[in-house]
Automatic annotation (TrEMBL):
GO terms for molecular function: DNA binding; DNA-binding transcription factor activity. Keywords: DNA-binding, Transcription, Transcription regulation. Transmembrane segments: none annotated. NCBIfam families: HTH_metalloreg. The keyword Iron does not apply. This is Metalloregulator ArsR/SmtB family transcription factor. Pfam families: HTH_20. Residues 1-86 form the HTH arsR-type domain.
């Protein structure tokens, strides 16, 4: 599953936004949501399996952090799509200007 697939869910996007400030444990992350801890744990699992987050154990805690490489891949794809649409819209604008000029 790609980073874009994983980030399609709004709860998972909010988790990533929380982790933009740095590494957090599962309990802290779950405490920021109205959802149950098992539901947040499932979201964390999807984010880890999708390569968006990494997890490490420190004692009994699981600490989550963003894997920047996966987000760079998603960013590159989005940038390419934006560039494509800019070219299309620029061509349309030129055609419309020629038609009125």
């Amino acid at each position: 599953m790609s980073a874009l697939d994983v980030l399609a869910d709004p709860t998972r996007r909010r988790i990533v936004e929380l982790l933009a400030g740095g590494e957090l444990n599962a309990t802290t992350i779950a405490g920021r949501f109205a959802s149950s801890r098992p539901a947040i744990s499932q979201h964390l699992g999807v984010l880890v399996d999708g390569g968006v987050l990494t997890v490490r154990r420190v004692g009994t805690q699981r600490l989550y952090r963003i894997d920047p490489a996966s987000l760079a891949e998603a960013s590159d794809w989005l940038s390419a799509q934006a560039h494509r649409w800019e070219r299309v819209l620029d061509a349309l604008e030129s055609a419309l200007d020629e038609g009125t000029g």
